[in-house]
Design a protein that fits this description.
Layout lengths: L10 H22 L4 H10 L5 E2 H8 L3 H13 L3 E5 L7 E5 L1 H22 L3 H19 L3
Antiparallel strand pairs: 1-3, 2-3
Helix pairs in contact: 1-5, 2-5, 3-4
Length: 145
């Protein structure tokens, strides 16, 4: 009888594998639209919301802050995002999406939602919602500011 590998039962490995496989499917759509995956992640993180500190944005897109800063520079040159100093704390830089960036993000977000529905369809709406709820709780429990 074959033995099961550790990673076939280890939560972190399972999450990483699922994320990689599912993300790869959608990243093909992103690249077909002429965006880099890093640009998509930044736009998706800023879309529909208020400006956020660059450090927090780096946490959301899972990239080092200097990398995100360089990416923001490139995206600002394209008119997709802009940066501003925090009104109360001049040490913080805020990132926000521009109207052009919002338009680009809106189209991709619609495609991302369709992709998500396709991924979750085999499990039903309730299980999909439960999975997302559990993941948000897990993230909150393990987030370090």
């Amino acid at each position: 009888m074959p033995r099961e590998r550790f990673v076939e039962q280890y939560l972190a490995a399972l999450l990483a594998q699922a994320s990689h496989l599912i993300s790869a499917e959608f990243h093909a759509i992103v690249r077909a639209q002429g965006l880099a995956v890093a640009e998509w992640r930044i736009l998706a993180s800023l879309a529909g919301g208020q400006e956020i500190p660059v450090g927090r944005l780096a946490q959301l897109v899972i990239a080092p802050q200097p990398t995100v800063t360089r990416q923001l520079d490139r995206m600002a040159a394209k008119g997709l995002v802009e940066r501003a100093a925090h009104t109360d704390d001049k040490r913080l830089t805020l990132a926000r999406i521009t109207p052009l960036g919002q338009d680009v993000a809106r189209a991709l977000i619609a495609q991302a939602r369709a992709h998500e529905r396709q991924v979750l369809a085999p499990f039903g709406e309730d299980m999909g919602a439960q999975l997302k709820r559990m993941l948000r709780e897990m993230i909150e429990l393990h987030r370090r500011e």
